[in-house]
Amino acid sequence: MALTDSFYAVIEAGGTKFNCAVVTPQREIVAEIRIPTTTPADTLGKTVHFFQQQHKAGFHFARLGIASFGPLDLHQGSPTYGYITKTPKPDWSHTNLAGFLAEALDCEVVIDTDVNGAALGEYRWGAAQNADVAVYVTVGTGIGGGVVINGKPLHGLVHPEIGHMLVQPPAGVTGVCPFHTNCVEGLGSGTALGKIWSQPSHTFADDHPAWDGLAEVLGQMCHNLMVTLSAQKIILGGGVMQKEGLVAKVLATTSATLNDYIVMPEGTGLDDIICLPGLGTRSGLFGALAMLDR
Fold first, then answer.
1. Which residue windows are transmembrane per the record (predicted)?
2. pLDDT in tens, 77-101
3. Strands 8-13 vs 17-23: parallel, antiparallel or unpaired
């Protein structure tokens, strides 16, 4: 469905905050708010109020795109379609996110994971344009990944859970994931780094050994994504990836583990594949808009 309306409502629903906006088809943001993710009643109540105020201001919309933290039930026809299912986020398990907002705002709702949304946004307007296989990984409080293949987000059994890919931990380090211990998220998220090193990750000095360990973990993840999905783009977003020089470290470790096994197309280097988002911090928000254009 083409973006033919004047305005659309979009939400990037994260575990820390809900970024809510009304946008035009040209991605002009006409109204925006960030709402802390506290309890469903509080956060969703404030979300509904914001969008109702936009209607009163003349920004009328009939469709809402939601790129949300999960896990989500994305099986259309399921009685819990659009629900956040079993999540470690307190109070949010079994929340009818899509259904509640559709009823409260009297609009059509399209929902997908925040990282699938970000991957779709990057495919449409960002760093993954023209890529047949694109992966977006956010490295922040947690780690999650979305996949777009031939312009369509990958769902399959549930949806990708790239953060729970098992990897070899750096020497002397044990992961903290309560489900899998040494998965990518349990070793490399901001939360995990803080627990492993007993200090917040944003306080690490430039020469802190955590950075090399993180690059080792993310390098293994990128290696696995390249040999399993034949990914043409692996976009690394999220707050932790804003650390200067971290992408270069990930490129070096990925190159070392691949050991020249993959023969790249002529003119393509590993730094063309593994990169930062082209949409900056807007990948998820604009991804929610791209979800409405399918």
1. none
2. 999 999 999 887 889 999 999 999 9
3. antiparallel
Residue with tokens 């903290």: 176
The amino acid at 152: K
pTM score, two decimals?
Answer: 0.94
Give the DSSP per-residue string, the chain. ----SS-EEEEEE-SSEEEEEEE-TT--EEEEEEEE---HHHHHHHHHHHHHHHHHTT---SEEEEEE-S-B---TT-TTTT-B-S-SSTT-TTB-HHHHHHHHHTSEEEEEEHHHHHHHHHHHHSTTTT-SEEEEEEESSSEEEEEEETTEE--TTS---GGG-B-PPPTT----BTTTBSBHHHHHSHHHHHHHHTS-GGG--TT-HHHHHHHHHHHHHHHHHHHHH--SEEEEESGGGGSTTHHHHHHHHHHHHHTT-S-PPTT--HHHHEE--TTGGGHHHHHHHHHT--
Amino acid at 125: W
Structural domain that includes position 153: 128-276
146 plus 269 within the same structural domain: yes
Q: Phi first, then psi: what are they for 24, rounded to 5°?
A: -90, 170
Same domain, yes or no: 109 and 146: no
- Residue 228 domain-assigned (yes or no): yes
